[in-house]
Every structure is written in structure tokens, then in C-alpha cells.
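[Solved] Which block belongs to which protein?

Original post:
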Amino acid sequence: MSPVGRPLRPRGKLLQEDARRHHRSLLIQQLFREGPASRADLARTTGLTRVTVSDLVGELVGEGLVEELGAPAGARVGKPPTLVGLAPDSTHIVALDLSADDRMSGAVVNLLGQVQARHELEIGGARGADAVELVHRLASELIAMTDRPVLGVGVGSPGVVDAGGTVVDAPNLAWTDTPLAASLAEALGLPVFVANDANTAVLGEHTFGQTGDGGLMVLRVGIGVGAGLVLEGALLHGHLAAAGEIGHVTVDPDGEVCACGRRGCLETILAAPRLRRRLAEPGIDRDAVLTEVGERLGATLAPVVGTLNIHELVLSGPTELLDGPLREAADRVIRERTMPVSSAGLAVRTSTLGDDVVLVGAAVLVLSGQLGVS
């Protein structure tokens, strides 16, 4: 995970003890974002010397992360440059999404975020230690589904998760100070990265979605409700790693009791299980309910948009709930309650990555942690 203030994507030379690792990240990042390039092009775009680039590319080719691709099509007369590119299936990533209310999902993902295999396990009411055991089982079974080396394991978990991968508090799974990353790493013998599912989703959208360069907020709706934010190129963690816990902002003091123990949190009206139950009640006007929830969501988010000047607000979760009346109402209320300068360029949309946004984001946790790219 990138600390507050550190750009997610390295952009320039760094003269310090870990310069070599940083320079490797620069090269991998360039190939990751822009595709195959010659050594000369890599030197020009990264600002590194040709000698350094040649040395590092040789190292990466030897490790299998980068491969020689030959000359570009239409090369001119004379000795053409040799292109190099990432070898996307040289190593795989195991990604887990724990955000659903009824199942834990996982996938084997390559270095370009492409899903190679899928697997899931029903939660069946598992909580506490039983839920942790289920995560271990899912990760182990996914590792057995690939014949490639595994770069690491990424996990998007509900709740507050600290920088070390300990789930500080996840009421819906009855986890408190649960060292999920440490227990998985010990059991699997692999690097493990765990983050809040909304933070994981925003990383997936930032890296593989269709986002612009402005502030990005992903509102993740699943078993709970949370938000992830990327501001000026850095993931926002906040004090005690609790940035984005908007699901536990009170929107109705007389509302239902929340899993956190308080009453009337946003989660009590927007979390997928609760919203589905309400929509299933006899005689319910579906569009009216979704519009009402969208208006409450818009009123909750308007101060955030106005304060941070968010450029894109992405709703991530069940499309049949979030797209349509709910999204439209939230969009309208945000614009009604903020100055035009704050919301004129705002895009409110659902995720282009669909149900895979947390899985792909979990892969980004590993890419960032192990290769320094995102």
C-alpha cells in the first residue's frame, strides 16, 4: 500500500539507497502503462541512462518478468531496435474479495489484471475464526489452480484495515484486531497484502478502470458501505487507516440499528442485503425507494465532493441497485448542494470493472507491493 502523499505511480529518478529497486519500478511501470518499448525509448521516458536501462532490462528478462519481442513493425533500414515488454503470465497473483454478504470470491490474475481462473466459497454464516479459516481455504485452493509462480496474495476485506494488513474492526464478520495478512503469509509462505475493500476497489478503478486525472472516489456497496479515495495520485488512508468509513455516518437518528452498534448509519439503508430486503417488501414502489436512498446518499456525499473537489464518483456494487434511479438521484442532489465550480466537471457513474473491481484491485495491492507499480 502506498502511504499518504506518495504517488501511486513513480515518475522520476530517485537517488537513495533503494535507487535500484526504484529504477526497476520505473521501467516496469512504463511497460505496464504504455506497452512494449525499446531500451532507448525506456531511457528517454524514464530519464535513466542507457547503461542503467540495459542492465535492468537484462535482469528483468533473466527473471522472466520482461521478454524480448523483436523489432517493431515497419522498422526502417538499418539495425532496428528490439522491443521489450512485460511477460503477463510469467507469474500470477491470487486475489480475494471478501465484500459480499453471502460468499467469498477469488481469482487467479495475471500481471495485466486479466482473470485466468475463478473460485468462490459460500460464507454460510461463518464469523470470527471460522471466517478466517474460510479465507485460508479459498486462498489455498486458488493457488492450486495455477501452474505459474505466485507473486503474492491480495485481499479486499470489509472493515477498517491497518497498513500491516490487520483487520482492526469488521463488524459484519465479527473480526476485531484480526491479523489476516500475517496469518495468511505464515500459512502460505507468500507475500500477502490486505486492505479495506473500498480502498482496494479504488486502486482497481485507478489502475484498470476508465478514470481521469482528477480526484477519484469509489463508493463500494456490498455487505457494508465504504469509500476509497485517490487524491492527487495518492491513496488516502487517513488517521488510524479509517478514511472512507462513510457507511457509518448517521443519516437517520431514528433509523435501524447498524452492525457497528449505532443507529441510522448510511449502511442501514444502502448496504446490499438491507436494500434488497426493503425492495422485497409487499407493495413497494421500487423506483421511489431507490430514488429516496439516492437522495440520502447525495446529501451525505455533497460535503465530501465540495470539500475535496472530487472529479469522479464511482458507484461499485450490484448494478441493478446502484445504476438508474439511485445513481441519478445522488448525482442530482450533489449538484444541488454544491457550488457549480465543485460539481461542474463531476462524473457520477458505475464501475466499468463491474463485479471484478475488488478482485482486480486486490491484484493491484500485490503489483504495488511487490513490483512498485499500479
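(Second protein starts here: sequence line, then its C-alpha cells.)
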Amino acid sequence: MGKPAVLLLSGGLDSATCGAIARREGHELYALSFDYGQRHRAELDAAARVAAQLGVRRHVTVPLDLRAFGGSALTAEIAVPKDRAASEMAEGIPITYVPARNTVFLSLALAYAEVSGAADIYIGVNAVDYSGYPDCRPEFIAAFEQLANLATKASVEGQLKFKIHTPLVNLTKAEIIRQGTSLGVDYGLTRSCYDLSDAGLSCGHCDSCLLRLKGFAEAGLTDPAPYQS
């Protein structure tokens, strides 16, 4: 068995690829997902499928209802933007941003890592194809890593030195897909859509779907995930 590592696993394309990279780097994976009040549960089903394919040691799904705060199209009755041009997506922070989500998620991943004896935490953030989210930027990750090593018993006592790994942060979506394909990721198991149907079919029109489809096209591949007709 390799060194333990915590993987933040959403069930999407990026987190699945991130997990495959962590596994290639010799880690035994402890996956962490969140039932945070998102618009659909299909992404949690996808996370379970991806965890099984990755052969994780343990997969924990934490209930965390961010609908109590709202403020996002993913956690409130706010329409998900559809059919936006790339220039529109590149402007400002989109309404699909969930306030402080990655800060909250990484904090809980840190607790999970400390309990699991894992110095390494993997998160599939990306700042190239979708740079609108402030909590996907390298400077945020660096600041959180510094915090992690000030905030825990394991780090203060010298047992663990925490490292936040972001292997996808500077890759385009096409580069991520090519790398994941080379590592055997089954993208048919993943879901990236912000507005999935009850049957788990992607809409094909939200920002996430458009970026995903563009990535597969640029990689010269067909997206195996099911879409609404």
C-alpha cells in the first residue's frame, strides 16, 4: 500500500482525473464527497462510481447543507446560466459560484487527512479553462496549505507536513481529458453538469457542459457521458 492521501471527489471529470493521478503517484486514496444541498444527487452517484473505479480505501460522504446560506445557482432557486459564449464565461465570477465552498471543503478534507494520517490532499481545481472562481486560484491553495500547517495537532507536533496537490491547475480541459484517458479514467462514469435531469442526464447547455464538450472536441474524443436529447 502507498502513502495515504485524501481526494476531494465530486464525481466530475476533474476530480476523477485528479484521483487517477494521485493513484499513479503511489497513494492509497481516502475519498471525500459532500452532500451539500446541490441541485441534484446524481453527482454523488457519479462520485461513488468513480471511487469504485479508483479502488479507494475509504469513501466518506459528508452531509453539509449549504442551502441554509444560498447565494448560488447550485444551492438556491436561481436559474443556471445556459448557452453562454466563452467570452461571457470569462467575465466576472459566475452565479454558479458557491460562497466559500472550497475553503469549507478543504477544511473538512484537512480534518479527514489528519485522522487518516495523510499528509497529502488532492483537489482538482483548474484556473485555465474556467478562471472565474476565486477559490480555484493557485494563491488561494498556497494560502490554505500554509493555514493547514498552522492549524492542526499533527503539523504542530511535527507528525505531518500537509501538502495540497493541484495537478490540474494549469491544464486546459483537453489536456486534462488526454491525461485521464491515458490513465484509464472512464469518463462515462462522471458527471459535470450543473443542471442534471432526474435521470442523471447532462443538459449540454450550462457552462460546465459547454467547457466539457469543448475539451473532448479539442482532445479529438467523444464524451461518453449521457446527455439529454
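Accepted answer:
You had them paired correctly. Confirming on the second one: The longest strand covers residues 27-35.
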